Amino acid sequence: MRQAKLKNIIQTILDCCYLLRTWLVNYLAYYSLRLYGLENVALNDVRTGRYSTHNYSDRNLDNAKELDLLLSASKECLDNAKHRRTAITDKCKTLITISSVLMGLVGFLTPKALAFEHTWMRLIGFLAILALMNTITLLLVFFGVGCESEISIEQDEVELDASNLKKSMINGYLLCQTDMDNRTNYLVDLYKSARFFALFAFAVFVGLFSVSILSTSPKEETERILLKLRSDPVLTEMLRGPRGEKGKEGQIGPKGERGGEGQVGPMGERGDEAVVDEDAIVKRILESLGAQQGNAGVPQN
């Protein structure tokens, strides 16, 4: 009982997610087609994945003369519709490849895109990224599973004669061709819308990077980055790393040579209240005179 209840709850959650995803994708495709410029598209056309503009009615073949020729022509009409579907599918494969490469380039150049100096440039770049993602979403909708009419042989047709069987096959081929054209026409418009958004995103990115390259020189960009790095104390401390322990004190080195004699300093100011020792001055004069007389009395050899 509990397992069944839990299973029902999980199934309900999954159903809600599926409905929400379907609702978002349908409205995204619808408004993308309207933004591209298609006015005759309806929301029901997006939900069914085909247009309902061409309605088929059985051809009256009672008076037909060349049933074999009509049967061959109806088969050729269906083949042409298949070739048209194949051609548009190949175009979508090419477009989704180009969009994927462009998305990779955008991811590689994202740091450069976020370094735009002006806010309006960053805003336009963000819108271009949304347009590119919308392109990929529309292409995924293109490759979604849809219903197609096919030729089949029912039991009531087995009992028909050759003439009536050919008439039934002719109407069957034409019915399949009309149904395929209705879906192909819708897929063609879906492809045109996806290509429009892809070209818009590509043109915006080329314009933004051109303006950024022409308006900013490499030298100014390098100086701006260096200034930003130097002004960040957290980054500077992180690059410098933790401070190590203080090393041991080294031995005292040998004593250096004595320097040369310095210049004589300037004469100092004269003192206002200097004390003169007269006795000492007289004593020095007498000693000087006595020494001179002693030198004069010494006989020369």
TrEMBL record:
Keywords: Membrane, Transmembrane, Transmembrane helix
Membrane-traversing stretches: 92-111, 123-145, 196-214
Source superkingdom: Bacteria
Ranges of biased composition (kind: Basic and acidic residues): 240-260
Keyword Transmembrane helix: yes
Region of interest called Disordered, as start-end residue ranges on this chain: 239-271
Name the UniProt record assigns to this protein: Collagen triple helix repeat (20 copies)
Provenance organism: Polystyrenella longa
